[in-house]
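R.M. (postdoc): so does anyone remember the format we settled on? I'll just put the structure tokens first.
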């Protein structure tokens, strides 16, 4: 199978960036298909740490990197990211969809004002996608047009009443904003021109030529707008299916769907988290795993591995195999368990609650995990190229237990943040 979709199988930050970097070596194109600067994908290679907010994580392999139609783009942030990679000696082969939507400063201001309840990243994601759905937002093709300034001013006029009513601007500050932002964004448009194209057509041509296309999801399945823990979700679809809508994956062409999961669970922002840990146990796991957000630096909430939620995510996203990350972190802490079901009022339930307040109430059913072998980097190296059956007993039995519960295989095990700390079975 030439084409692969990588998606998060939890609430984001599962290690998608690391795995995309690993898989990109065998790929020709790497395509982001959803989200925007809310994503923070970390790649560590040869002692350097790279954080990708927009740029697909295949960039270090010098692959063609695409931002598909489903992505929302803050041009200023993207240009800064391009510049920082150029400064560090890389030459990003970037292509941007003309149809991708543009994030403006007023989207960010609305998000900062109203996003607290959800604990958003404050990057303007929700307001941009909602104005896209309302058919009043601008796309990349608008800001690169010859009459970009007029298009931007016209679009701002359409949202003026709303911005004034929400006290984002006064009449006077709105006029100033219109003048400065239209000139600023038209200038970004000029700088973008060389990158902008019909990216879905590039994917189609590559697929026809039997090149390998790697689709990189942002966020995680449980943050999906339709199937996640609504309203504590992001504003795009994070499922593998979104690679078809937002990235140009072609229905009917065989495709591998790889879900990424940590060996435990984390979440950033508000919303239900049935297996969340508190107190010292949480602090120990957070510190062992350096669990701080790559985009906002917020401490991540941490908890036991929620296999019940993971199995739900696998089913709704059609995930066929798993890569499990951070087994090395799990080995550093004791007492993490696996959740194999939920109870409400003492009764086991057989569904994943759609209602957030109900999910807040569930009582997880746990099973103990044997202490995971804490291997040194050199010891881990000896397992390269070996099969699952050769792994230390504690790790082998943990993997087997998970595979039996979620009914799909773990085909990749990640035991450190570096590219080469990965075992492919
Ligand atoms: P993403 O958003 O899914 O790409 O994940 P993030 O980059 O936000 O967060 C994952 C973090 O875990 C990053 O700091 C990675 O460098 C790190 N990481 C990924 N895989 C492993 C692993 O197997 N072990 C350890 N210790 N860290 C890992
Ligand atoms: P990556 O791609 C983890 C969370 C936010 C918040 C909710 C809505 O790095 O895995 P938004 O700004 O999208 O409107 O915020 O979603 N969130 C993420 N959590 N990883 C991410 O991306 C996230 N992107 C958004 O914390 O709870
Ligand atoms: Mg992240």
């Amino acid at each position: 199978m030439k084409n692969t979709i990588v998606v998060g199988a939890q609430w984001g930050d599962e290690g998608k960036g690391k795995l995309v970097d690993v898989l990109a070596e065998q790929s020709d194109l790497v395509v982001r298909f959803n989200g925007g600067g809310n994503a923070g994908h970390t790649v560590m290679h040869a002692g350097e740490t790279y954080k990708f907010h927009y740029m697909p994580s295949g960039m270090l392999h010098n692959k063609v990197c695409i931002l598909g139609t489903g992505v929302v783009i803050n041009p200023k942030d993207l240009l800064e990211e391009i510049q920082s990679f150029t400064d560090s000696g890389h030459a990003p082969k970037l292509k941007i969809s003309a149809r991708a939507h543009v994030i403006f400063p007023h989207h960010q201001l609305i998000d900062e004002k109203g996003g607290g309840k959800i604990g958003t990243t404050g990057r303007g994601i929700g307001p941009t996608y909602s104005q896209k759905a309302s058919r009043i937002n601008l796309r990349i093709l608008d800001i690169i047009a010859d009459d970009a300034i007029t298009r931007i001013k016209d679009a701002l006029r359409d949202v003026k009443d709303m911005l004034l009513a929400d006290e984002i601007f006064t009449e006077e500050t709105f006029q100033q904003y219109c003048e400065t932002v239209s000139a600023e964004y038209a200038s970004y448009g000029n700088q973008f021109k060389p990158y902008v194209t019909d990216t879905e057509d590039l994917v189609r041509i590559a697929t026809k030529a039997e090149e390998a296309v790697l689709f990189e999801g942002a966020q995680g399945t449980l943050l999906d707008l339709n199937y996640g823990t609504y309203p504590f979700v992001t504003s795009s679809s994070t499922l593998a299916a979104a690679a078809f809508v937002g990235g140009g994956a072609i229905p009917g062409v065989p495709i591998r769907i790889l879900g990424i999961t940590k060996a435990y669970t984390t979440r950033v922002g508000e919303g239900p988290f049935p297996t969340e840990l508190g107190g010292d146990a949480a602090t120990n796991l957070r510190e062992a795993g350096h669990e701080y957000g790559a985009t906002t630096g917020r401490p991540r909430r941490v908890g036991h591995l929620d296999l019940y939620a993971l199995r739900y995510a696998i089913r709704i996203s059609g995930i066929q195999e798993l890569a499990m990350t951070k087994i090395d972190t799990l080995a550093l802490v004791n007492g993490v368990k696996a959740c194999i079901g939920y109870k409400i009022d003492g009764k086991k339930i057989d569904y994943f609650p759609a209602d957030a307040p109900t999910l807040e109430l569930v009582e997880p059913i746990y099973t103990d995990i044997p202490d995971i072998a804490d291997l040194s980097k050199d010891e881990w190296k000896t397992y390269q190229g070996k099969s699952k059956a050769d792994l230390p007993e504690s790790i082998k039995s943990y993997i087997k237990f998970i595979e039996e519960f979620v009914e799909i295989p773990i085909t990749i095990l990640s035991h450190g943040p570096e590219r080469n700390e990965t075992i492919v079975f």
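R.M.: ...and that's the designed sequence above, right after the tokens. Also worth knowing: The pocket of magnesium ion (ligand 3) is lined by residues 12-13, 40-41, 294 (CB under 6 Å). The chain is about 35% helix and 20% strand.
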